[in-house]
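re: ur question from yesterday

yeah so i grabbed the chain u mentioned. its 356 aa long if i counted rite. heres the sequnce exactly as i have it in my notes:
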Amino acid sequence: MALKNHSSGSSRQWEEPGAFEVAPGVYRIPLPLPGDSLRAVNVYLLLDSDHAILIDSGMYVPQARKRLKESLDAIGIGFGDISEFLITHIHRDHYTQAVLLRDEFNGRISLGARERPSMAIISERATSNDPKMVHDRYSQLIECDAKYLIDILRNLEDDDGEIAGYYKMPDRWLEDGYTIELANRTLDVIATPGHTQGHVVFHDPNSKLLFAGDHVLPHITPSIGLEPTKAPLPLGDFLSSLRKVRLLPESILFPAHGPVVESMHGRIDELLVHHDLRLAQASNLLSLGRSTAHEVALGLPWTRRQVEFSTLDPFNQMLAVTETLYHLDLLVQQQRAKSSTRDGVRHYELFKSSST
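ran it thru and got these structure tokens back, copy pasting raw so excuse formatting
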């Protein structure tokens, strides 16, 4: 495989295999995600003196391992040269391949400290009599009045027991504000809860590079709170994290999914506007008499193509309903709406003084 020059390219060109030099000593390596609508995940190789550091690692599947090996070969290093895996969050397309490579070739795994409770739950499942990685949003679907989705998702669910077995604990927990000193660069660890509670990004302040994981994505809005543990207000966390990162100096955005973007500020501003609009749309639907997260989700447009809820696949319908729940909960926290629970289903209504 030949080494390739960096090009941000079209909306899907970023998925093409290769090792792309996106900054001096930094290579973007897209790895495949079989069966996933995202199709690929970017991992970033940092060459640092005699060491190689990998930011995120891809999913533990043969296709990803083969693609990563080919890309490293093109650069002139091997798996054994990777001294550390810096992982942005626990999702399997970011974490699981690092565990396999560490077990086989050594190297250290570092992960955000607030992922510890979720990792404990996953590890317990991996050694239990039922290691299947069940969806932890099932109870929320009942709250959303979308119980019918549970049976559909269970019928579609693959046995993830083998994947769960590769959720071993990291070697180091990273706290917010920690600085990673490398020979050729410094990386600041910034906690960005929202996508998961322990999500972190890595910021190179000298070169003005942001390795953003799934916190800031160029073409899609990140899902919120998809993890075993539940945050009280995940959308509030996510918006606060966006504003926190927005205060950093303008930097090049290196996302986990999608092409490199020259302005992280521009994309963060777009995401903040999107969620403001979403809150207004949800508020308007409450004013029209809809009261549950499922009812509101049915009235919202979805994806960049603004499609109807019914056109989404069941997994993305689940994400849509729970994301709507988080928007409604934020309206309550902002004192623009109130909620009550009847027969296990949460109902929302606007305060009389709330404007739409």
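noticed a couple things. The chain is about 35% helix and 20% strand. also The CA atoms of residues 285 and 296 lie 6 Å apart.
anyway ttyl
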